[in-house]
Amino acid sequence: MLAYYLHNLDPFIFRLWDNVGPRWYGMAYVLAFVCGYLLLLLLSKRGYLDVPQSALGDLVTWVALFGVMVGGRLGYVLLYKPEMVRDPLSILRVWEGGMSSHGGILGVVIYTLIYAHRHKLTWTNLGDNLVVVAPIGLFLGRCANFINGELYGRIASVPWAVQFPKEMLDTANAAEADRALTACQAIDPSLRSVESIIESVRTNPKIAGILREIVTPRHPSQLYEAALEGVLLFAILWFVRTRFRTPNGFLTGLFLLCYSIVRIIVENFREPDASLIGPFTRGQFFSFFVVAIGIAFIVIARRHPTYPRGLKPL
């Protein structure tokens, strides 16, 4: 039998006390916004982005707060976990994870439409540059998902499969959780919940040994998404942005198209975190619509081309 890696990463960078302290999840967002700002600054200097460099700080800040954070969180609640509405305070606990990329995209669209109208900018030019840096946030966010041990993949037997103890928190795995509790309490009677078992994996080798016999090996789908949604998508968009003279809106469409295709593929390896819609996961279902929107952006950009103000005509 393969010795699969048992996930035991701590979601905290360090703890001030108990469950209080900076988390890798929050750090991922901070790094994403900093990297996004620096790259947008570079794109503005090269003439690809119509927003002046002096205004980029405010733009990135509000895109981050309103577009990504609010849109992503509300999207997660409405599309995946509507039961959270019964406990409104749980919606505010973003540090525990739970963001929707589709909700984040919609939030950014709404904010940038307002921003472009107020500042008399071409909205598609704004979108074309934001989507180029967006994969950095997707990459860091998926890495944070892996560190948190959440949004894990489907059952697998590949050599690089990972055992995620958090699967025991899923009501579908209640029998598995009961087995783990019974076995672990024989070693440490103070372990009275699944959460306490998951915590003890990081410090107690005996508990880790028990869970290796119980927890199911799964695809590390978070890392698949980090590689495809993050690294691959960024490479494609950066190459097209900096090597070709594309009309406003083309890159927005390319991002929506490529992201959706990648998401549809990777969802085949990811454990559904909500009920299916027909034969499709919710991520796949929503992505089909985004594919159509992406194609529409590309067609319109080619038929009615406008270009960034700072680019010299051919």
Can you count the beta strands? 3
Q: What can be said about the biggest beta sheet?
A: 3 strands, mixed
Q: What share of residues are in beta strands?
A: under 5%
CA(first)-CA(last) distance = 62 Å
Order of helices and strands: EHHHHHEHHHEHHH
Strand arrangement, largest sheet?
A: 1-2-3
Domain module tally: 2
In helices, the fraction of residues equals: 55-70%
How many H/I helices? 11
How would the blueprint of this fold be written?
Layout: E1 5-6, H1 24-45, H2 56-79, H3 88-92, H4 101-118, H5 123-148, E2 162-163, H6 174-185, H7 194-200, H8 205-212, E3 217-218, H9 221-243, H10 250-266, H11 282-303
Parallel strand pairs: 1-2
Antiparallel strand pairs: 2-3
Helix pairs in contact: 1-2, 1-5, 2-4, 4-5, 5-9, 5-10, 9-10, 10-11
Characterization of the model:
By secondary structure, this protein is mainly alpha-helical. The protein has 2 domains: 11-156 and 219-303, no CATH class; 165-214, no CATH class. The protein contains 11 helices and 3 strands; from the N terminus they run βαααααβαααβααα. The protein has helices spanning 24-45, 56-79, 88-92, 101-118, 123-148, 174-185, 194-200, 205-212, 221-243, 250-266, 282-303, and strands spanning 5-6, 162-163, 217-218. Strands 1-2-3 form a 3-stranded mixed beta sheet, covered by helices on one side. Helix 1 (24-45) crosses helix 2. The longest helix has 26 residues, at 123-148. The chain is elongated and about 70 Å long. It starts with a strand and ends in an 11-residue tail after the last helix. The model has no long low-confidence stretch (mean pLDDT 91).
